[in-house]
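User: I'm writing a tutorial on reading structure tokens. Could you give me a worked example: one chain, its sequence, then its tokens, then a sentence or two explaining what the tokens reveal?
Assistant: Sure. Here is the example chain.
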Amino acid sequence: MWAEINEMSTPSDAAPVWDISKKPTEDFEVRVIVWDTMELEMMDAEGTTDGFVRCFFDSDQSKDTDTHFRNSDGKCSWNYRLLFPVTYGEKNKRYEMTVQAYDLDLFKSNDLIGQVVLDLEDMLEDSMLAKRGMSLTKAYYDEYLTVEKGMKGLTFEKEDERQFWVELKGKKDGKDAVMGKLKLSIEVYPKKDAELNPVGAG
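And here are its predicted structure tokens:
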């Protein structure tokens, strides 16, 4: 940190005053809609996958969709909303949401198919500054997040520019591979706005 040195004769009220107090935290609700997959890897011996999606900022507070059983064409469908309370502005905290696709197994551990990590700090920051909700839209992504923040890897739907596809990365035959694509929507709302316009999970 640099400090400015003023002459002793400088009146105290003439010297600039810099506010170095800690930025206050603010509570938000992150709304994630898990829509569909395509080209999802089949994990069971009979060529099927019992697919579900898990999302979390903190793995101890993860939330799951329901399960699309016996999928055989890689096109699972959920249309499932997950809601996350998030406090923004906490020191040394990252606001990365992990999204994972699993194959449900009843008699052994679930198989992780693939995952993606999305950094939502800029959305939270922008929502706090604008004092309103933010949607991850194609325009917001193209004009700001990619240009100013270097975000990449999202492909938006033409019919609805709030829906986008991400690639799920995993392991196949011991090598890094794309294990399918997942369609999502993400919105961020200040807590007070979320309470005024509540939506249900599921």
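What the tokens reveal: The domain at 26-196 is CATH 2.60.40.150 (Immunoglobulin-like). DSSP finds three helices and eleven strands in the chain.
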